[in-house]
Amino acid sequence: MTHYSEPSAEERLAGQQVGPSADQQGDQQADAASPADGSPTTAEEGLQPAAPPGGTGETPEQMAARLQELTADLQRLQAEYLNYKRRVDRDRELVLQNAKFTVLSSLLPVLDDVDRAREHEELDGGFKAIAEALERIVAGEGLVKFGASGDPFDPRLHEALMHSLSPTVVTTTCDRIVQAGYQFGDRVVRPALVTVVDPDPSAARSDDGEGPADGSASDTSATD
Q1: DSSP SS3 for 170
Q2: 72 sits in which H/E element
Q3: What pLDDT digit, counting tens, does each position of 35-46 carry?
């Protein structure tokens, strides 16, 4: 059996002087961590309430100026978008009109054949129905046919193949339509081929009451 001897009075006194207890050490650490001026520690700072949102520190005048600047930027972006949209719509419409112009131009020889068949009274039966349907379709797409006998001659719309004089006209007039012209909107797809008649200058002089070319005068007789 092992026997333990009690410590002597000197040993007990030395053990009490070794150091503070665990509670005393914790109190000392807490005192050392607390600032002397009483300001919050790092741990306490994390528990502080957050600053309210929007606290930029700007004055009302600065906020009003910033709002005005942002509003101007928004208006500029909106105007740029509207201009871009108009330009895209205009370009899309132009592409569509050019495509129609190309397709309708390629159908002109077929329409010329229809006109020649109609002139020779060969447009009848099923061919007549197809020709009339084709003319309705191209007219619905905006193709306009022009050129008729008696129309005033317009160099923008007509191409003269032959000139002649006539005392019955007072201005250059389309006489015979050799080939019809077509127009798509403001664009002339093809001018009409025509023969024209011009006013006869000699007829105009006669209407003015000029005498014969040799200057002779007609005789008059008086009865007694």
Answers
A1: coil
A2: helix 60-106
A3: 555 555 544 454
